[in-house]
Design goal:
17% of the residues lie in helices and 27% in strands. It contains four helices and eleven strands; from the N terminus they run E-E-E-H-E-H-E-E-E-E-H-E-E-E-H. It starts with a strand and ends in a 14-residue tail after the last helix. One of its GO terms (biological process) is pseudouridine synthesis.
């Protein structure tokens, strides 16, 4: 079995083919028969896990296993404590409330330069947030920050469960260690249902 981590660059599709000629994973990962676990938007950057372990791929993509993903998000404006509370308690997206998340302000975030810089407006500050979710709605983080009044300008996935970007630069990938594969499999292991124990009198 193969297990790879890729730092997906900006404006790359999380698939291996595109009839419109856009960049895909094939431009960065010359390994046959591996497939991405879940998706990362074309205009988002960061960690993508690829594997040919179909069972693990299915379980890690299934929301019921609640694998936490960590995003660092640059937003327009400076979110208030109330906005962070709202992100954590859940926001309405197309009539459906998101599950509780973790959200906090970050300071001193430094990333590589993006191929297309974010739009800059001198009179509007930007802020980096860390947002952790275990749901997988389409463009969820962007919709969440927009719902509380702070549009996303840049989004980087920095962790999937215990796996982090580390030193990976955009377009670079590496094999997972045996220990990392074990950690992922532990995350995706079905939890035994709670069985109450009764003492006999």
């Amino acid at each position: 079995m193969q297990y790879l981590l890729l730092n997906k660059p900006y404006e790359v599709l999380t698939q291996f083919t595109d009839e419109n000629g856009r960049r895909t994973l094939k431009d960065f990962v010359p390994v046959p028969n591996v497939y991405p676990v879940g998706r990362l938007d074309y205009d988002s950057e960061g960690l993508v896990l690829l594997t040919n372990d179909k069972q693990l791929q299915h379980r890690l993509s299934d929301p019921k296993f609640k694998v936490e993903k960590t995003y660092w998000v640059q937003v327009e404006g400076i979110p208030t404590p109330e906005a962070l509370d709202q992100l954590e308690s859940g926001v309405l997206i197309q009539g459906k409330k998101t599950t509780p998340a973790k959200a906090k302000l970050l300071e001193g975030v430094m990333f590589w330069e993006r191929s297309k810089p974010i739009r800059f407006r001198a009179n509007i500050p930007t802020t980096w947030l860390e947002i952790k979710i275990s749901q997988g709605m389409n463009r969820q983080v962007r919709k969440m920050t927009a719902a509380v009044g702070y549009p996303t300008l840049r989004l980087v996935r920095v962790a999937i469960g215990p796996l982090t970007l580390g030193e990976l630069q955009p377009g670079e990938y590496r094999d997972l260690s045996m220990e990392e594969v074990k950690q992922l499999k532990d995350l995706a292991r079905p939890k035994a249902p709670y069985q109450p124990h009764f003492r006999r009198r």
